[in-house]
Amino acid sequence: MLQIKGYCMLPKNSYTNYNLYNYRLVSEKYKNTELFTNCIEISCPSGYIEIINNISVLIKKYNKLYKQKVKFSQVKMKFGNLTIYFENGPMEYTSKQYREYKKLLEKINILILESKNLCKICGKQMVDIVINSKILKKCFEHYNAHVPSLTEY
Prior knowledge:
Blueprint (H helix, E strand, L loop, with lengths): L1 E4 L12 H4 L1 H8 L10 E3 L5 H18 L4 E8 L2 E7 L8 H19 L12 E5 L2 E5 L15
Helix pairs in contact: 3-4
């Protein structure tokens, strides 16, 4: 199983924001799709649906082109970071398939890293603002959804 990490900031009290981020929406959308048949967990904020869609498109293209069966094994937030595990990647490290698989993972990692600039509720681009002398990223549409205390950072 391969793990790709992105660096996204969720507040430390993210469990209290479970409904705000609507984790179920993502799970319901993907749980019965082909790429998620063996996925043991799909648990990430609804704002990341577009990121998951884009990653799914990349994996489908790779699978079709190289006759592979790469699938999602787990999608979750781990220590505030979007973390995705895959299964069925090519095992021959010298093959062209493997080299292309590494390129695929690099593209996926870029998408995941971009997610740190997205609102976890709606998926729109966040902007830098200053609150209490701290630079934070906020979505204007969900500006007051969670105002962190200084102890959270």
